[in-house]
Description:
The protein has 292 residues and is of the alpha+beta class. It has 2 domains: 2-135, no CATH class; 140-289, no CATH class. Helices cover 35% and strands 16% of the residues. It is built from 9 helices and 9 strands. Strands 1-2-5 form a 3-stranded antiparallel beta sheet, with helices on one face. Strand 6 (170-172) and strand 7 form a beta hairpin. Helix 3 (100-113) packs antiparallel against helix 4 and helix 5 (140-152) packs across helix 6 (185-194). The radius of gyration is 22 Å and the shape is elongated. The model has no long low-confidence stretch (mean pLDDT 89).
Amino acid sequence: MMTNVRKGDFILHNSNGKVMSISIAKTDCHDGMQPRELANADTSVAWDDDGYRIDTDYFDFDCPLITTDYQGWLQAHYIAGSAFTSAGRGKQQYMCSLADEHAIFFLEKAIGFQKDPDVLKHLKDALADIVGDKESEYDPLEMETINEMVDSSDAHVKPTWSGKKEEQAMTTSPNTGREIPKRDPKRAADALEHADYLCEFNRADRTFLRKNGKPYTEPHHLIPISRYRDFDYSVDVMENIVSLCSHCHNLLHYGRFEDKVTVLKKLYNDRKDALKRCGIDLTLEQLESYYK
């Protein structure tokens, strides 16, 4: 798990059932020797000299969060692969990934208890990054750019899928300074044109006309771009950007999972071979897990 940490990521620190602090990674995870303090500590664990290290800026909470206070909520919102068991207790391991829903919950709780302005700033910045990843693909400026490209497009040749494996382009988050995946508005506009500005779940779904007479649809990353680390190649490719009517797009972002399944199955079956040619290989079950 440590090897997945990148510069700018945030880490919540738990001790004896209490979330005590937040730290911000100043570096990617890298090879490191055992710290002198750990080597001299009174511990029964025989740590190896060689290991991994993350350099961080560390901020203690004014008031720790006692995770057992939220055990009922964690049981009701169990997520496989997150830092808590189905019984609502923290997993006994050195470092765990924290599912977005759990991270948002604990960050919001922590913000309500803290007074230190530095701690509050980093908690709010971390929350803004996660909510942005979870709820929105393109920010307002990006959407304005996409719409301008669609409105001005008069191409006589329809954009085509590249079928190429590409590295994921990255940019810097304005909130935390961490590296985040970059989205290319031109590819989104091209994806809409490739689909004839129709909904790819149901081409007969109701749309309205833009001012230039083209049907209005919205671009959507089938594999959420926030899951780019699950793949060796870029997920910001046309093969992964689908054209959806407003109803289907909002359903995938905000609807009940059971109502998303039919849409996901159709889009997955239509795209799985094209995605594989771009080096993006996944099962339907893996795709569905991103929408639960």
